[in-house]
Write the structure tokens for this entry.
Amino acid sequence: MPLSVPHIPVQAVVEIINEWATTPQDVSTRPWTGYPGADSAVRQQLMDVWPSNVAEPDDESIARACDHVYPIFTVRWPAETANYLNRAIVGYGMVPRLTGAQDGVRMRWSTSHVEQFLTAILVASLLEHINAAPRDRFGICESTSCADVLVDQSPTHTKHFCSARCQTRERVRSFRSRKPE
């Protein structure tokens, strides 16, 4: 029987991927302190939509799902992103389902692939965000010591860094490289 695939806010997807995916951990110069605990806000957002009839994911399965979704942020926006998401829809057995509600008809996702359920939630969440904000570009922080994913929601859609800290670190690095010794 197909499972209805819920979605979570895109910022929660970004935080989950940045905390559990392998690449951000490998590239970061900050010491890794482990996965967020069971009481973390981002894990709680995920568990709030998690169906009771599906076993809760452990850290390894969350990391695996994040590693599957991470490449969506690395490809060229928008054409390659669309292609990657189309392949993810098929690969994770996601099927669109229409539901009627008081405010009209809504499209939701379902899947029969319970082993890929978490990955389907992350993909459905990205699709929900794209539907609501089609100009918000997905990307990777351009800092040399960071590989965190980001969603560019800036007015000009030209965001290059995941945080002000990474942007400042790169500006200082650039300034120091131009300064004579």
The helical segments are 10-20, 22-27, 41-49, 59-69, 79-91, 117-132, 164-178. The chain has a mean pLDDT of 94. DSSP finds seven helices and five strands in the chain.
